[in-house]
Fold this sequence. Notes:
The chain contains six helices and no strands. The chain is mainly α. It has two domains: 84 residues; 42 residues, no CATH class. 11% of the residues are buried. The structure holds zinc ion (ZN). Zinc ion binds next to α6.
Amino acid sequence: xxxxxxxxxxxxxxxxxxxxxxLWQELRSEIFREQETLHSEYDIPQDMGEQSxxxxxxxxxxAVADVLRERLSRMEEAERKLEEGTFGVCEDCGADIExxxxxxxxxxxxxxxxxxxxxxxxxxxxxxx
Length: 129
Ligand SMILES: [Zn+2]
């Protein structure tokens, strides 16, 4: 691995780390926002660990729980790919995905060009039928 590739990987790791921190913060604030409602049923400690947060969250049945769990599993997938060295690589053309793009969309699996191509125009122009 060249020095540059190694540096890139470190920066990608940092992006994932930040995103993960943000996710957990969101999770925490979501749980505490609902605490009024949940308090009668759940005893929520301030220093709740990540696993117990997940447990509480799945017990609550909050709609946001599914969304956050989904994002957390994508995050784990991304971390696995980072270890394998396939994170940040376009699934279609194999090019490195732009770091700027990954900062905004950490789970992007295609480079911006392939993404645009695969999305294409959402609808055929009017009057073509
Ligand atoms: Zn591509």
